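## Example record

The block below lists the input lines for one assembly entry, exactly as stored, with component labels intact.
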Amino acid sequence: MASGDQVVQVLEIWPPATLYAVLTRRAGASSPAEGQNVWAFDAATIWYLDFLCYLRGYGGGGLTFTLPWTAATATSGVTRWGVAVHRLAAGTDDVDVAHTYVWTTLDATAPGTSGFVLYSEIAVTDGANLDSWANGELAIVRVRREANHANDSMAGNSELWSLIARET
Amino acid sequence: MAVLSDADRAAVAAEFMQQAMGPHTILKPDIRAAVNALDDWYNANAASANAALPQPARSAMTLADKALLSNLIVNKRYASGA
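Predicted structure tokens for the full assembly:
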């Protein structure tokens, strides 16, 4: 398939056992108000969220992950997002063994209005940074806010709405 | 009583960011500076606040009681729209 094609299918969203982003409802302002489910990432401690994903039609060009997010209260500052992959290759990857995630990061500046959605894109190169994820395989795509990094200056939670990925 | 430890001040800043409604135009370091400054102020003025309490309350109330009373007054004055 070609660059720009959506080759990643999100099957499940799994909060990790600890240090997980918290599912939160952000009410809209329509009548009736939208009940917008978002995943809140803390501003002081690194929290994580896992997506079980399936890769198909991938041509090896790397993947670009889009993180739609809002700031819970902030109108300035930076959220440092990270994406990493844990490939689940048949007969190779033991899910009972600890995996070392390789992070690709992005510093995203908060919109000037806390209700505005920002689409932050993280391009992950093919190979080790994608844990050599191959066509027809599942993987855990892990997202985090690196809240303890010096670049992460935004006050308050970052709210992740979803995860979208396409071939770069 | 000394000022809060660095870890306690960090915990206060983190809890504030979880609870505060915003919007916030300031950054995490600005919030931490505010925590430090207000904690320093409480430390410098604790004896004065205690002396302002009339007897027998000053002697009879525990430190926790005085903290609760102070919280209730501050909340009523500045957070509840009074």
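The two ends of chain A are 11 Å apart (CA to CA). Chain A has one domain: 8-167.
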